[in-house]
Amino acid sequence: MMIRTALGARRWRFVGQLLLETTLLAFLGGIVGLLIALSSAETIKKLSPVEPYRFQQLTVDWNALAFVFDVILLASFLAGHWNCIDRCPFRPEHVIRRTQR
What is the value of pTM for the model shown? Predict the structure, then answer.
């Protein structure tokens, strides 16, 4: 971050980058979780016996998945803001003055 500050990057560039990174990571994690849920539901259907018939009705609840994705996006947004507050409290002129001594 100090190199980008020395090159003239503004605080909002850092904020945008950190928010994009956390949201992208959360979205990719949600996609991986969705794929695991879908594949495990199909695997359970294939491996379960036909007799009880209860496992054959197993499906993924899309309303619950939509809620989970909303919570994931909200958490990533809050984590991104927390990360920005934690990592971007400086002003470029203070950093440059401190490094010139």
Answer: 0.64
3-state class of 48 per DSSP? coil
- Note whether residue 6 is domain-resident: no
For 21, 52, 74, 85, the CA distances from 81, given in Å and listed in that order, are 11, 49, 11, 6
29 within domain boundaries = yes
> In Å, how far from its chain's centre is CA 13?
19
Spatial distance between the Cα atoms of 41 and 32, rounded to a whole number of angstroms? 14
pLDDT tens digits for range 24-82: 888 888 889 889 988 988 888 888 877 777 777 878 888 988 898 888 888 888 887 77
Helix (H) or strand (E) holding 4: helix 2-6
Q: Structurally, how many domains does the chain consist of?
A: 1
Confirm if 87 and 17 have CB atoms less than 8 A apart.
no
